[in-house]
């Protein structure tokens, strides 16, 4: 029998964060995509399936949301490591296989986990009609409030799950957003991307920081409360003219207070670490988890 439970990544002082329902299974246990998608809808969060691979002494991770399987999930990766550490007593660092590569997840201090990830380039989007469509998708349609001259738009290039990225001057734009899911899905499909990531730079002399919101494709009006996959790319973008080695990303909701992602770099080695506080909760059987789905 498989067991699992909720695990939260990128928490803020032991609260909030982005949940993942982690499932741990033995070798040969079938991964039922339909069941995982139904579970994702039922618990209203991403599902990470961790299957033990005895030949390589690793867990193979697969990620599911309500509408299907996705290639990678940053918060699901950290959530799985924290859950396996707590309930299966795996020592840190924990090697996890994602697609065809190994990701090493390390506990930096009690309750805090991180993994290494590449930062990808952000390519400028200059077409006014695309930027106008992005603003419409975010519900920023009042020309007196927000114009294409006040924002900068990009797309990530080279990532497994590429994003449309839009930078605003300050927090007021994030607070005013009301996602139009149909419009977002249309532009993401047209540009072969997986979501709209909006942010503003809120750095001060003491710390490099951004406030952010992310609206994944095919998620209706739901919001992703913490997005690890794009974090190094955006952190690298805003830190080019700064001396700080760590960027704080505060993400989720109109006030961007639901999660905290810590992105740090070794500039000599050009390595980025994506991390944060993680909290693993109960350990339950999948029979119990699925009992209320059908």
What would your notes on this structure say?
With 294 residues, the chain is an alpha+beta fold. The protein folds into two domains: 3-113 and 278-290, Roll (Diaminopimelate Epimerase, Chain A, domain 1); 122-277, Diaminopimelate Epimerase, Chain A, domain 1 (Roll). It has helices spanning 33-43, 74-88, 128-137, 171-176, 181-190, 231-238, 286-290, and strands at 3-11, 18-25, 46-53, 58-65, 68-70, 94-98, 101-109, 112-117, 122-125, 152-156, 164-168, 195-201, 208-216, 246-251, 259-266, 271-280, 284-285. Strand 10 and strand 11 (164-168) form a beta hairpin. The radius of gyration is 19 Å and the shape is globular. The model has no long low-confidence stretch (mean pLDDT 90). One of its GO terms (cellular component) is cytoplasm. This is Putative phenazine biosynthesis protein, PhzF family. It comes from Advenella mimigardefordensis (strain DSM 17166 / LMG 22922 / DPN7).
């Amino acid at each position: 029998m498989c067991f699992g439970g909720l695990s939260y990544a990128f928490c803020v002082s032991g609260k909030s964060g982005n949940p993942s329902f982690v499932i741990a299974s033995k070798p040969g246990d079938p991964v039922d995509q339909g069941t995982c998608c139904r579970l994702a809808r039922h618990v209203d969060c991403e599902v990470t399936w961790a299957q033990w691979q005895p030949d390589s002494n690793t867990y193979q991770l697969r990620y599911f949301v309500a509408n299907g399987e996705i290639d990678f999930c940053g918060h699901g990766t950290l959530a799985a490591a924290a859950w396996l550490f707590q309930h299966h007593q795996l020592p840190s660092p924990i090697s996890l296989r994602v697609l065809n590569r190994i990701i090493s997840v390390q506990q930096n201090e009690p309750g805090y986990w991180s993994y290494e990830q590449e930062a990808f380039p952000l390519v400028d989007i200059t077409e006014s009609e695309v930027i106008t469509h992005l603003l419409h998708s975010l519900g920023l349609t009042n020309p007196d409030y927000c114009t294409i001259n006040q924002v900068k738009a990009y797309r990530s290039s080279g990532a497994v799950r590429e994003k449309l990225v839009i930078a605003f001057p300050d927090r007021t734009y994030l607070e005013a957003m009301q996602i139009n899911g149909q419009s977002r899905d249309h532009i993401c499909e047209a540009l072969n991307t997986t979501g709209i990531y909006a942010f503003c730079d809120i750095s001060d002399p003491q710390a490099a920081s951004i406030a952010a919101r992310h609206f994944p494709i095919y998620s209706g009006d739901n919001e992703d409360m913490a997005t690890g996959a794009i974090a190094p790319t955006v952190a690298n973008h805003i830190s080019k003219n700064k001396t700080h080695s760590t960027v704080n990303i505060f993400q989720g909701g109109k006030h961007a207070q639901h999660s905290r992602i810590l992105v740090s770099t070794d500039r000599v080695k050009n390595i980025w670490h994506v991390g944060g506080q993680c909290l693993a909760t109960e350990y339950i059987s999948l029979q119990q988890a699925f009992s209320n789905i059908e």
